[in-house]
Amino acid sequence: MSRVGLRTFIQGWPVYRQLTGTDPLGRGAAAQSDRSARLSARTETADSVARSVCPYCAVGCGQRVYVEDNEVTQIEGDPDSPISRGRLCPKGSASKSLVTSPLRQTKVRYRRPFATEWEDLELDVALDMIADRILAARAQTWEDVDGQGRPLNRTLGISSLGGATLDNEENYLIKKLFTAMGALQIENQARI
Amino acid sequence: MAEAHPVGFQWVMEAKRRGAKVFHVDPRFTRTSALADSYLPIRAGSDIALLGGVVRHILHNELDFREYVLAYTNAATIVSERFVDTEDGDGFFSGFDPETGSYVQDSWQYAGHESDSGSGHTAQERDTAAGLRHESHGAQVGGQTVRDETLQHPRCVYQILKRHFARYTPEMVERVCGIPREKFLELAEAWTANSGRERTGVLIYSVGWTQHSVGVQYIRTGAIIQLLLGNMGRPGGGILALRGHASIQGSTDIPTLFNLLPGYLPMPHHADHPTFDEWVDSIRHPGQKGFWGNARAYAASLLKAYWGDAATPENDFCYGYLPRMTGDHGTYQQVLNMIDGKVRGYFLLGQNPAVGSAHGRAQRLGMANLDWLVVRDLFMIESATFWRNSPEVATGEIVPEQCRTEVFFLPAASHVEKEGTFTQTQRLLQWREKAVDPPGDARSELWFFYHLGLRLREKLAGSELPRDRALLDLAWDYPTHGPHAEPVAEAVLREINGYEVATGRPLSAFAEARDDGSTAVGCWIYCGVYADGVNQAARRRSRHEQDWVAAEWGWAWPANRRILYNRASADPWGRPWSERKRYVWWDPDAGQWTGYDVPDFERTKPPTYRPPEGASGPEGIAGDDPFVMQGDGKGWLYAPSGVLDGPLPTHYEPAESPVRNPLYRQQANPTRKVYAHPVNSVNPSPPQEHSQVFPYVFTVSRLTEHHTAGGMSRTVRPLAELQPEMFVEVSPDLAAEAGLAHLGWAHLVSGRAVIEAKVLVTDRLTPLRVDGQIVHQVWLPYHFGFEGLVTGDSANDLFGITLDPNVLIQESKIGTCDVRPGRRPTGPALLDLVADYQRRAGIVPGHPAPTLTPGALAPPAPADGAGKGRDAS
Amino acid sequence: MPEAEFTSYYGRPILKAPVWKWDIAAYLFTGGLAAGSSLLAAGGQLTGRPALRSAGRVTSLAAVTASTVFLIRDLGRPARFHHMLRVAKPTSPMSVGTWILSAFGPAAGVAAVAEGAAWLPERGLSGLARRVLPPVGHAAGLAAAVTAPALATYTGVLLADTAVPSWHEAYPDLPVIFAGSALASGAGVGLIAAPVAQAGPARRMAVAGAALELYGSHRVETRLGLLSEPYRTGSAGRLLRAGRALTALGVAGALLGRRSRTLSALSGAALLGASVATRFGIFHGGVASARDPKYTVVPQRERLQRRRAAEG
Amino acid sequence: MLPDPHSLSGPLDPAPEAGWTDAPPRMGFFTDTSVCIGCKACEVACKEWNDVPGSGLDLLGMSYDNTGALTANSWRHVAFVEQSRPAGHPAGVAGAGPQFLGMPGAQPPGRAGGAQGRTDFRWLMMSDVCKHCTHAACLDVCPTGSLFRTEFGTVVVQEDICNGCGYCISACPYGVIDQREGDGRAWKCTLCYDRIGAGKTPACAQACPTESIQYGPLDELRERAAARVATLHERGVGEARLYGHDPGDGVGGDGAFFLLLDEPEVYGLPPDPVVTTRDLPKMWKRAGLAALAMAAAAVAAFVGGSS
After folding, report:
1. How many CA atoms lie within 13 A of B618 on its CB side?
2. CATH (residue range C22-311)
3. Which chain B residue lies closest to D66 (C-alpha atoms)?
4. Are D22 and D152 in contact (CB under 8 A)?
5. D234: buried, middle or exposed (CB in 10 Å: 19+, 13-18, 0-12)?
6. Contact at 8 Å (CB) between B232 and B288?
7. Domain that holds residue B752
8. Ramachandran category for residue D104: left, alpha or beta (phi over 0 → left; psi -120 to 50 → alpha)
9. Residue A56 belongs to what domain range?
10. On the CB side of B588, how many CA atoms lie within 13 Å of its CA?
């Protein structure tokens, strides 16, 4: 330990600071560690802050999503929001644990008919298989016209039930595509 | 509200700090009750008796805000002399057709408009949940009406209303709801005292209020009270519906619903709307007053947005491509069809019916009889693993090795991994910025459906089949960005907002929509969200830099208006009712309406304007008609049409009730929708026998710590540990009677299922004395299921499927059950227990009791059948 | 004492029970033993009783070593034991105790090592050590003895300076009990290890120690009102009663067995046993008083009422 | 030797006394339980910000409290107390007035007690937290200087220093600080030392939907609290009282104090907590006497008597 090193060690030693500083009892300034002195809120070192809205109920509380190294590091209330004034409920406050939950699925899973276990499946393959099944179901159950020759243009072989946590843009494309496909039986949580 | 919308509840606390009195009515004492000034225990399912009592209190004591009521409601309008009220029809209005269990509404019309109802048999409107269409536009009624401004005419709405609720006395309220007279009077007196020029009151309900067989009529009664007391369209007044999902409002505005197209345009009906013109006229009702007059422009612009260049005036903008409804295609009918093997494929997009929908067993049996199921969700929810872990696997009804459903689970992006708008419960669109890319295979629905559409069009390229034209001609070319070719959400929002086809210029108001194909508008009520080419939903001007209306935060439909019908916040001459409640008023100098909010009135139409004879559309609205969407510009105390189960709310018992309807011979809502499918059943209610087999009333609702079916809270550690186990709340009295121990086990049996739960004995639930008998109520949270960090039985398994006639929402807030100590049986023994209860209760699955109570004298069907009695094919 | 009427939050404790495990109670004993035996050793050293000196010194080192092991083992993060020397806080009895131990430990160590001087070979470096060690050991022995009373009694303050009701209320008596118990332990070592001839002082130390210990324990078990209850009931009660019995036996044996080597040794063992029992008894009594909210609420309610009455 | 006559007990501005020259104003919490809706946003927000590990997954049957207490893994704890006082009990009027719950008229079956059904029902909710005492026993007794007084007057455990000696856990008169299983160190609320250092609001105070938890300079909070109690008393909420606000109390007043609607012990709070350090000087004196007695006894043992 060089002499300089020794001196800084001694000066860093709280007992020394007690004797020489303003905190003889060692209950405050003298006892503060380097780590505590350097402490800063992780929101201050975030790479970006996204202005978002809580995904849970329909009050629409504003959320700020802090991101660092491409990971969500904090989600808290947006103080500017006239609806929520920076506040959140227990669910909204748990948004970081929601989006980073270890239980979140990140891989496509596939269950073969009569199987007892899941298998993996490539996303692109799954998309293709689903498209084929839509067209097959649609073909098998298509109704051109009703009993009196009036147009029906539809299939009752496909159903859909959406949650109401989908974006308006998503609902718009879903409704547009299903309607063009003739799939009439699409529903969502607004009626449940 | 403190339970399911806690952050919204800060405003109730703010009001309380300023001296507002807070009343909370709920079957159970909740965290909201803890902070309310006064709590009223109520028997679940008897809300109309309570609110009807308040209406009677207002009319009996003439406490209504008379100036407001006379000018802005249809109180003075005279109703047809053919109208017969439930008071004289023993629970039926005139026009009831026992065969179809629905009303012909001709006799309900205003005097002289009997032939205008155009409703014919409303059975078909019930199947198509037509009520939901009136979310944004009023029901139709002909031009001028006959009125008696003195409100003395026996058939003016005011007097009809008075007679209708005459028997809803404080004593009757106590008898039906179990609420002591003095508590009821405390509420009625406070509500009425807080009305008039200087003061307003707000009615807040959570969406559970709609989950009743008379759900829409609950809200109607609330609307009647708020109109009588002059609270509609005014600051600190109105009715606030607290929705449970982030964008439920968005999910009906841009509806992934079977009976609606964006902007509440109805899906075409195979019989009613064979052609584009008939379809448009059925929306616009030529000759009608009100803003629905330009429905043709909205319809044409929507089809233009769907089929782009292929949509031309000549081919009615590809109207022929639209699929047609033939009846009830609701989610519950679909589930029954799945059980019967009629449905091949099922998409679940962030929804968990195995726990969230009523009759969990039917939901799971339906899924077990599909060809394929696609589940897109953040977590491995119960609806994705029914084939392996569901209760039916335990009872042997679903054997994994024999379950043929092919299941695709595709991970979804969370709200911070995609950009887009939510529409919250006050119609406010708020844009979310994207924070990070979704992990692994997780994708947004935008990505999934856009690329699915591309894949489908690739596979159909070159097809000659007519049915494929709709897909091939679809305007399906959105710009994409990012590593996964994510469609640009703002491009979709621009299409929703609408644009001039030739120039691409975004429209700024739905008045700019044209019916000549020159404009394309994805959703006419959202027109303006991209005004001036700026994403108005992304505006985030801080609340500290604007006034309390905060108009520059996000964008509210329509036209960024924050309080609807705010013309009513000024008196008939356009002056604010009072300085204290000033909101929107007429500025004579500037010659236009002005105020804190976007006026809900044509800006330059003076209050003195009176429409010329025979005027229709917006011109037909007078200067003192604040309810611009209604056919007569007035607030409807009495609804001649648009509501299928009666122009006035009437107390009917829930489908499953231990109590005989004290007011009418007809026990429950005669127009409710019942399914006779073998999997479905309804517990017996008086006057049927064996109702005592299920002696207790149960109701379900939410806990603050969990979210709907639990998929986004039972999988999140900090929330799961706050409410870790399924429990049932019972009163000390019931615990004593049924031998239940605090923290011990109990199992609840209904006609459909048996579930178990830990027992919480609490004084927050109390037995109620109803009509001379003691009624015990138990409460259950409905968040639990068999997946996630914390699991439990699902409360919704107990419910059968009974829907309300107007919007086909299930009655899942009230049911009858038995409660027994100990855990439930497992394996096949569980089915034996349910079967035993069904046998003792006389339930024969597939054969529900008739909706008409035997002996209830239904009035003779109208002799002349004048209405356009089109029968449903 | 009628069952006091009080409310609580579902019967749950208001305080957190001490998280110390049995090795802290054991340290109370070994710390006292180290102190007592170092006093014995110094006495032997100064009055020419080598048996007392060497037994005392060796036991003292063994006991202080055991103490260090117990203390470090009980830490949540044993590897950070040296953080104790980061500060010197008079408001923390444990900080003061650490510095006492830091002084006592080496002194006791050197004194004990000095005992081995006799076996060192004569020549060379070790020879030098043979000559230097005895006087150094002598000084170290005295140094240890001087700090011994502090080592024995600071632990009384350590327990008392907590929110644990029955420890805090007993602050006047815990140091006395621990001082007595330490003396008795030291005496016990002398009675066991030394020949009867040299054991006189050990016998007198035993009597003095027992007196202090019994006096303190008696006051703790009776003078604290409701807060004496935990010392009379349950495992604490049993341990303290056992301690009292063993102390009495030990003292009687020490006095009567003046000429019998085995009887002295037996009474020495009894005294050591008594010290262990008393230490564990006091430890368990305190922990019990933290677990039941009654011992927190009732005394505080009474204090409040007295103060409000005084304010009139 | 003591920097201030009140160094060990009595009213004191702790940060300057602990050596912080030109310290910022003392910050703290005022928790107004009369507007607490028991939503537990504070518990979750605290855990999310501080990455506090999970606590148990079992139903405790203590109304809606499944957390149980302040622990090393729960630095905020919302208490729930369901009070169905018999009609006559002078419970005064709750924040929201006693709620009528009972049956109209006749006596419900199987229910002892008054003829009128259940009246005077109240549901008390309160978000409990570390009190950040003016005289913090945990801090005083900490032998490593891990617990220290920050410049804001708050009390914080420095996780890089704590060696898990456990002394603070026995010293805390409120039973707040706790040792974390598997980790060994002591943990408790830090009043978001990192956030307030960056000028932000502690996570729980920011999340609290009804501002039951208010953060700010302690003097301001004390004024606000006094005004709030006065308002509640005017509105007939007789039993609203402050707890931990008085610098003259046994711990010199708390940095996080409360407005309660019943006796403290109903919420699991000690009615008259006193910092143990107040008696420390007397304790050292007593130890000194015992030590002298011990020394004297030892000397006497060797000097007296020949054998």
Report:
1. 10
2. 1.20.1630.10
3. B722
4. no
5. exposed
6. no
7. 673-841
8. beta
9. 42-99
10. 5
Buried residues in B353-380 as b, exposed as e (16+ CB within 10 A) = bbbbbbbbbbbbbbbbbbbbbbbbbbbb
Residue-wise pLDDT tens digits, B457-483: 999 999 999 999 999 999 999 999 999
- Please give the mean pLDDT across all residues of chain B: 93
CATH code, domain carrying B40? 3.40.228.10
A46 and A29, same domain (yes or no) = no
Out of C6, C87, C172, closest to residue D265 by CB: C6
Min Cα separation D263/chain C (Å): 9
Q: Which residues of A touch B321 (CB under 8 A)?
A: 153, 180
What's the DSSP call for residue B761? E
CATH number of D23-86+118-274: 3.30.70.20
The reply to whether B525 falls in a domain is no
- For residue D199, the model assigns a pLDDT of 95
Supply φ then ψ for residue B774, to 5 degrees. -85, 125
Q: How far is D137 from chain A (nearest CA, A)?
A: 11
B238 domain residue, yes or no:
yes
Looking at the structure, tell me whether residues B235 and B347 fall in a common domain. no
Q: Is residue B273 part of a domain?
A: no
* Domain identity same for B829 and B704: yes
Q: Do A59 and B345 touch (CB under 8 A)?
A: no
Partner-chain contact A39 D197, CB within 8 Å: yes
> Going residue by residue through chain A (192 aa), what tens digit of pLDDT does each one get?
677 888 888 888 999 999 999 999 999 999 999 999 999 999 999 999 999 999 999 999 999 999 999 999 999 999 999 999 999 999 999 999 999 999 999 999 999 999 999 999 999 999 999 999 999 999 999 999 999 999 999 999 999 999 899 999 999 999 999 999 999 999 999 888
CB contact under 8 A, A123 and B410: yes
First to last CA, chain B: 44
Mark yes or no for CB contact A79/D20 under 8 Å. no
Torsion of CA C72, C78, C81, C84, to 10 degrees: -90
Task: With beta carbons under 8 A apart, name residues in chain C contacting A27.
Answer: 89, 91
DSSP state of B308: G
Residue A104 lies in a domain: no
Is the pLDDT reported for residue C138 higher than 70?
A: yes
Please count the residue pairs, one from chain A and one from chain B, whose beta carbons lie less than 8 angstroms apart: 495
Closest CA to A33 of D7, D201, D22, D142: D142
Nearest to A27 among D148, D203, D211 (CB): D148
- The residues facing B825 across adjacent strands are none
Give the whole-angstrom CA distance, residue D171 versus residue D141.
7
A88·D207 Cβ contact <8 A: yes
User: How far, in Å, CA of B474 to CA of B810, rounded?
Assistant: 35
Q: In this structure, is residue A50 part of a structural domain?
A: yes
Question: Which CATH number belongs to the domain containing residue B447 in this structure?
Answer: 3.40.50.740
Residue ending a domain, choose from B247, B269, B301:
B247
Alpha helices (runs of H) in B312-444, residue ranges in sequence order: 331-339, 353-356, 360-367, 386-389, 391-395
CA D19, CA B295: separation in Å to the nearest integer?
75
**Contact flag C86-A13 (C-beta cutoff 8 Å):** yes
Q: Which regions of D21-75 does DSSP assign to beta strands (E)?
A: 27-32
In a domain, A23, yes or no: yes
* Distinct helix (H) and strand (E) counts, chain B: 24, 30
Residues of C with CB under 8 A from a CB of A: 85-91
| Residue B455 within a domain | yes
For the record, the structure tokens of B530 come out as 């991209």
Q: Over 80: is that where the pLDDT of D307 sits? A: no
> Which CATH number does the domain housing residue B716 bear?
2.40.40.20
Residue B742 tokens, joined: 């605090």
CA distance B95 to B112: 17
pTM: 0.94
